[in-house]
Write a structure and sequence with these properties.
By secondary structure, the chain is α+β, with helices and mostly antiparallel strands. The radius of gyration is 16 Å and the shape is elongated. The protein has 1 helix and 4 strands. A hairpin with a 2-residue loop joins strand 1 and strand 2. 12% of the residues lie in helices and 24% in strands. The strands form 2 sheets. A two-stranded antiparallel ribbon has the order 1-2.
């Protein structure tokens, strides 16, 4: 998550084929016109939470990466 290796059982658990993280994850979403303009002009940066989850696994001896996985809301 966010470029930091996570360990099953410590950082996340598997449930029904999904990875479940105890901490809250969020994507920044689309930038509105004024926020985009302020970034473009260098007036302000973006400091919202923008988590990313990539999974690395093996299939038939080949390394496969699933990048930018969808984050589902918790119930």
């Amino acid at each position: 998550m966010n470029g930091v290796k996570q360990q099953a059982g410590m950082d996340f658990r598997r449930e029904c084929g999904e990875l479940v993280f105890e901490r809250s994850l969020a994507r920044e979403g689309r930038l509105g016109f004024w926020r985009w303009l302020s970034l473009f002009l260098g007036v302000a940066g973006t400091y919202r939470q923008n988590d990313s989850v990539d999974v690395v696994y093996e299939v038939d001896g080949r390394r496969v990466v699933a990048a930018g996985l969808l984050l589902l809301p918790t119930d």
